[in-house]
Amino acid sequence: MAKDKTVYTCTECGGITPKWQGKCPNCGAWNTLVEGVAEAPGANRNRFASLAPPSEVAVLADIEAADVARTPTGIEELDRVLGGGIVEGGVVLIGGDPGIGKSTLLLQALDGLQRAGVPTLYVTGEESGAQVALRSRRLGLDRSQVKVLAEIQLEKIQATIAAQQPAVAVIDSIQTVYSDQLTSAPGSVAQVRECAAHLTRAAKAGGTTIILVGHVTKEGALAGPRVLEHMVDTVLYFEGDTHSSFRLVRAIKNRFGAVNEIGVFAMTERGLKGVANPSAIFLSQHSEPVPGSCVLVTLEGTRPLLVEIQALVDSGGPSPRRLSVGLERDRLAMLLAVLHRHAGVACLDQDVFVNAVGGVRISEPAADLAVMLAIASSLRGRALPRGFIAFGEVGLAGEVRPAPRGQERLREAAKLGFSIAIVPKANAPKGGRAAGRELEGLAIHPVERIEEALEVVRSLA
Ligand code: TYD
Ligand code: MG
Questions:
Q1: Quick check: 212 and 196 in contact, CB under 8 A?
Q2: In this predicted structure, what is the pLDDT of residue 432?
Q3: Atom 10 of ligand 1, nearest CA residue
Q4: What are the pLDDT digits (tens) for 266-279?
Q5: What pLDDT does residue 286 have?
Q6: DSSP state of 419
Q7: 279-295 burial by CB neighbour count: b if 16+ within 10 A, else e?
Q8: How many Å lie between the centroid of ligand 1 and the Cα of residue 105?
Q9: Which atom of ligand 1 is nearest to the CA of 104?
Q10: Using CB atoms within 10 A as the burial measure, which of 71, 119, 144, 189 is most buried?
Q11: What pLDDT does residue 199 have?
Q12: What is the C-alpha separation between 17 and 28, in angstroms, rounded?
């Protein structure tokens, strides 16, 4: 068989050239050529053979729908985001900032699986075997039988997986793995993509579950091509502040379960411990209510979470800044425009900073109302009432739209002792006078428009 040789593929048009050039000769796009391997003639046809074995065309109703078999890792919060456990031949990508706890969590998971009789392999490219051993001692994993391989060369890793036949293999991290077939450096787009593709194929063919650890760039995306996310079955992200002890693991893609499900952990001296009842962990403790702070009830996966949203509005320079941590910045700009246009709250010449406490990332639009009330509160220098919560999406026309599963959010807030809520009208309990609605000690003020919400806040003061 002829030896594979290096070619360059355009990420725009998919055209292939033998030499690297700044401009793609096929479509004319700049800087789109990425190194890859040209396989020997004939090899290409079989490239995806192991991914989908040849089969007959069948009618959907006649195909027996086998439920995927899952093996729980024994770490309940991790199993929750995985959709019940690991799946045979499944490939999981887990990303997050350095030092957030990826290696810790996976070592704990592998040890649990190994103790349950599931053969495991931990491939480390970042630490030596001794360092991994040291960590396992710190975690209190006495006499752990997890097999460890300190290796970064793809071909050797594959050979070990083929020889050992583990049910689960962790590759920590995919950015350190390199293949001899490519000349580019480990961690480059070409290497990461090619190595992940080979490992994915091996997983599907051999029935091994592969967990790839991925680094995250400063911009918050997984380093390496987006295609990595497309290749795997499940993508998990670690979130949270490395300064606080709480960590969130979120599923952003899952072929075997629900997305946006979260697992919540606390980092302790003995590793990550699941937090079964996390609804109140993202509230900061103020003895007196402070301006610019509003508690949001957000629904992450199946569980409601109460998160404090903080805003600071301060006189800015000639070009005022809009910064947000944990919330979308584009959305912030839009909410400021809506506040100005529909409620007469002008922050045009002011710096506006918004922060979701605890390093949580909030992507649901139901955060809008809390963000706007926090901004208005900071601008006026007036705190919202004690025990106050809000949620609801705000549209460009100033209308307040309902959030999914409002009743559940209200019940959780009532359970935690909150006493006043401003919520979209459709989310308020039905019946009774509008101003007199109550749920287990939580007074509910339904609103239909943003200016109405600000009016209610003024009347409560
Ligand atoms: P680590 O799991 O190595 O993070 P990653 O693989 O995502 O880079 O480290 C997590 C951090 O947690 C590290 O700074 C040390 C700390 N830590 C604890 O607080 N308790 C522990 O039991 C362990 C093992 C680590
Ligand atoms: Mg690590």
A1: yes
A2: 54
A3: 101
A4: 999 999 999 988 88
A5: 78
A6: -
A7: bebbbeeeeeeebbbbb
A8: 9
A9: 2
A10: 144
A11: 94
A12: 12
Ligand nearest to the CA of 245: 1
Domain ranges of the chain: 1-42, 73-276, 293-460
* Packed helices 102-115 and 129-138: angle between N→C axes, nearest 10 degrees: 80
Per-residue DSSP letter, 57: -
Model-wide pTM > 0.85: no
Output the CA–CA distances (angstroms, integers) from residue 341 to 259, 352, 397, in the order listed: 35, 17, 9
Residues 6+ apart with CB under 8 A from 363: 328
How would CATH label the architecture of 293-460? Answer: 2-Layer Sandwich (3.30)
Mutate to test the pocket of ligand 1, among 104, 134, 268 (most ligand atoms within 8 A of CB): 104
Residues ≥6 apart with Cβ < 8 Å to 399: 448, 449, 450
Copy the structure tokens of residue 448: 């239909």
> Which CATH number, 3.40.50.620, 3.40.50.10860, 3.40.50.300, 3.40.1190.20, labels domain 73-276?
3.40.50.300
Both structure tokens of 182: 């490519």
329 CA distance to ligand 1 middle (Å): 30
pLDDT attached to residue 47: 46
Ligand 1 pocket residue status of 103, Cβ below 6 Å: yes
Q: Judge if 73-276 and 293-460 fold alike in CATH terms.
A: no
Instruction: Answer whether the bond into residue 324 is a cis peptide, omega within 30°.
Output: no
Token couple for 220: 């918050």
Q: Where are the alpha helices (DSSP H) in 236-367?
A: 329-343
Residue 20: the pLDDT is 83
The H-or-E segment that residue 16 falls in is strand 16-17
CA angle 333, 336, 339 (to 5 degrees): 155
- The one-letter amino acid code at 280 reads A
Residues of the chain with pLDDT under 50: 1-3, 40-50
Q: What is the pLDDT of residue 57?
A: 86
Q: How far is the CA of 215 from the centre of ligand 2 (A)?
A: 9
140: CA distance to ligand 2 center in Å?
18
Q: How far is the CA of 109 from the centre of ligand 2 (A)?
A: 14
pLDDT tens for residues 393-440? 999 999 999 999 999 999 999 998 999 999 999 999 876 555 557 888
Which numbered atom of ligand 1 lies nearest the CA of 96?
7
C-beta of 267 in contact with ligand 1 (< 6 A)? yes
